[in-house]
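#data-curation
PF: Archiving a pair of folding outputs for the training set. Convention for this channel: one message per protein, sequence first, structure tokens after, nothing in between. First:
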Amino acid sequence: MKKITSLTLKNFKAYKEQSFDFSNLTVFCGNNSVGKSTAIQAIGMFLQSDMNGNSNLKINGDLVHVGDFDDIHNFSMREDDVLYLKYTFEDDTVCWGYGIEEGDAREELSRKNELPFIGCDKQLRTITNSLKDNFSFQYLEAERFGPRDNIPLSQHNYHEGWLGKNGEHTIEVLESLVTRRRLNFSAQEDPRKHEGIINNNVFNHIEAWMSEISPGHRISPRIEARANVAFNVIIPSPGQLTKPINIGFGFSYALSIVTALMLASKNELVIIENPEAHLHPRGQSYLGRLIALSAKAGIQVIIETHSDHLLNGIRVIARTDPTFDASLFTLYYISRENDETSVAKIKINNEGKLSEWPRGFFDQQSQDMYTIMTGSFDHPNI
């Protein structure tokens, strides 16, 4: 499967014109409502579109729902009738939009809520055929399933092992690992393997990573086929059983993320919005470490986060793993001022240091500590 290597957005939502390069691990961060999710939504639009029977790009579908053309066209550029989204998968580029070719004016397309393909259909078929072979991905949005007594079995899957955009099929997939698939890591030295587990069984390593995030709890995923439901039993200590609701939201939210990262094969895509949700700082840090190790294993991971703890977990791996390749990591800090969206591209080195630290980039703790120490809100440039 080919990885996505770049995305160019023209007059799409917050961006007048912006290109993003993607590496094995690409992180989007910034304040709320500045455009962090926009690139992820654009990729979701591609993933949810059926390129076999229709060459159009779905604005609204199973993964993302972004409204109509008025919602997606950059507000300050309404007089510019051009909008496009250009995707590059290694050496192949595809583009959708309007205002470029004759006959694709915005007003003529507005009722369809689909963007037409720009180019010849043969080009699109060639590219999609090369992508769909063994094409597997996970797309976990910010609003994931919390603890449930039971969850209906899946009726629609993009592929085997699909967890659902809310993580709703996680327990069903985990149950299959225990009873049927018994999946093992293909590489003996897979960097995602937890140091406390000596075998290659993926389920055992999922449990081990979950124990770092929520220490002392094991899982027992089960299915009741006659009732068409899956349910999870939590084992807080030997001989004790309890329901997920008694463990809290963080455990259920993190379980789908850890499962997605551990199930992915080399070159597959995992997209996660706000992986840190409901987690203690320790859990956020360890999740960041697993994300970094997944990128090292060849998985393409794209995340949006507000967490400096998760970012620091990534930096811990960069600093402590002598074989970590700094080129695997790209971070975008998105900010907005005077109705202009700005993008700062930040790299990480093998000492875990970032190439720059823009003002407003995870500096709230420093500002708060300065105020606590001095009693002043007149912060220096720290």
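PF: Second:
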Amino acid sequence: MKILHTSDWHLGHTLYNYDRSVEQMAMLLQMVSIVKEQKPDVFMLCGDVYHTPQPSATVQTMFTNALAEIRDANPGMTIVATAGNHDSGTKHEIFRTPWMALKVFTVGSINANQKEDMIIEIPGKGYVIAVPYANERNMPKGLFQELLDIVAEKNKDNLPVVMTAHTTVRGCDFAGHEKASEYTVGGIDSYDLDEMGDGYDYLALGHIHHGQFIHSGKHNVRYCGAPIPVSFDENYVHSVSIVEIVKHGEKPTVKEIEIEPHRPLVTLPTEGVAKWEDVKALLQNYPNDIEAYIRLNVEVDDFLPVEANAEAQLICEDKKCRFCVINSHRVKNNQREAKVMSVQEFKTEEPIGIAERYAEDLGIEFDDDMKEMFNETLAALKDEERM
């Protein structure tokens, strides 16, 4: 059985209020090309199809059109798509019945009384156990092993068995995920691999954006990773995984196929931080014809110059790159004294600069997600004032 393993498309995701639909369409077209070339028996999308549980009609149309094109690229293929923690399980299953006629199986939620709905037989090829995301309270204890046992009873011909899950497995590399730890990533508590049961030939995981094997000793547990980055900290290759399994009990072979970024996420300087004037020079020298999102890492003694964001925006006006954010990194002194701002300083300081200083005094990292949330809230307040 040959499988294309992908996850975490996050369709509808915006970056610092920039629309990313063109990049997402470019990624989907690459998916179609890969399916045409590789001709897998199964196309598995393991959760986080969308970035939010309430995607717009435009984003939903993008997904359904892409799914139709992917199917047309290899009509004999079976498609399995499960819901992730960013998706609405209910919305995921709205068109479950008509899709099934086209060999497209969508699994949005877990029904302990209808476990068979999560088992998809690929005639003559193998079995897929499609487990969507469920929080700890709604995940029946021992479910993974129960499903594997049901398949073991059915699998008289010793065909390959693949299981999906959208979760965090302990021991994974969660680089690029904010506020992550060994026990929780992206708000999802982690499982020990032993809790995932025994009896699968390949465990296809979603949720972690960095493609990787989990070291189980069997080389058969893998996060395929996201096909495009959703944050600047995801500074690694994004890809899909092609998995081949000859028969049940045999080790799978896996290869990665890189997804070329339509508009990469670039941090200047590429390593470390630099003073504002040096970073500004890097931005000025960035090629005019390269499409990219730009983050600037600036070292400051106290505050970023008030005009810094406006200057960065102005520099990018005649370039194809999009300026997103400045990350300020204050020089840390072992005996730093809290500085009292004068009224004049307070009046001239950018709101985000004040917020950053406040966060620092509290010992909180003012990361990219917090900056984006702050800017969105500030924009909403300004809109309300205009009304």
